[in-house]
Design goal:
Layout lengths: L5 E5 L3 H13 L3 E5 L2 H11 L3 E5 L7 H11 L4 E6 L3 H9 L4 E5 L3 H16 L9 E4 L2 E4 L4 E4 L2 E2 L4 H12 L4 E3 H7 L9 H14 L9 E4 L3 E4 L5
Parallel strand pairs: 1-2, 1-3, 3-4, 4-5
Antiparallel strand pairs: 6-7, 7-8, 8-9, 10-12, 11-12
Protein name: Two-component system response regulator
Pfam family, one: Trans_reg_C
GO molecular function, one term: phosphorelay response regulator activity
């Protein structure tokens, strides 16, 4: 295992696989490659990567289905590769739990930097408040264990969803723009703000009684989002 970590690249284009592999290896990663979704799932189970780079459009088992199956068994960070103009696939990937995406054609150097950023964020120790458990009504977050529960039932949150919810809970009543959240939760000073929109939607589906009429994560029109505690 290298210090940077192990990355699994799943793409049916041999040229893309080779270029991405070489750039990631230069960046210090150990890299495994797969030419289709089935092989990707097999390698995932045998190599235990720290992050998966996953092409959306593949014959047979496509990237969205692979991501869905990965999320059934693991919260490993996933970076999706999507073609320019495939907004629906990008959103679908984020809804399935992908952590980030890069649009083709892309700079392999940028992809390597994005992979490093996602991994660094996933490994970063999170500062905790004085209380190790944050509560709001029937919602509870155990910060050290990185677990969340609603009404005593554990919530299946991805790492990014947990970070977003923890940020909201520790900043109640404050309106944040999507750009603010992208910087403060994702740690990015650039990126597609629709990433935030999709993660907020996923979070509402898990913590709101009626996601269409949220009472905790409120939309502030013209600004972004605000967390309104159930118990002040």
């Amino acid at each position: 295992m290298t210090e940077q970590g192990r990355v699994l690249v799943v793409d049916d284009d041999e040229t893309v696989r080779d270029v991405v592999r070489r750039y990631l290896e230069v960046a210090g990663f150990e890299v495994d490659v797969a030419g289709d979704g089935t092989e990707g799932l097999r390698l995932f189970s045998t190599t235990g990567p720290d992050l998966v780079v996953l092409d959306v459009m593949m014959p047979g088992l496509n990237g969205l289905e692979v991501c869905r199956r990965l999320r059934q068994v693991s919260q490993v960070p996933v970076v999706m590769l999507t073609a320019l103009g495939e907004e629906e696939n990008r959103i679908a990937g984020l809804q399935l739990g992908a952590d980030d995406y890069v649009t083709k054609p892309f700079s392999p150097k940028e992809l390597a930097l994005r992979v490093a950023s996602v991994l660094r964020r996933a490994r970063m120790p999170r500062p905790e408040p004085a209380a190790r458990v944050i509560t709001d009504g029937d919602l509870a977050l155990q910060m050290s264990a990185r677990q969340a529960a609603l009404g005593g039932v554990e919530l299946p949150l991805t790492s990014r969803e947990f970070d977003l919810l923890a940020f909201f809970l520790t900043h109640p009543g404050v309106a944040f723009s999507r750009a603010d959240l992208l910087e403060k939760v994702w740690g990015w000073d650039f990126g597609d703000q629709s990433t935030v929109t999709v993660h907020v939607r996923r979070l509402r589906e898990k913590i709101e009684k009626n996601p269409a009429k949220p009472v905790r994560v409120a939309t502030v029109w013209g600004v972004g989002y605000r967390y309104d505690p159930v118990r002040r």
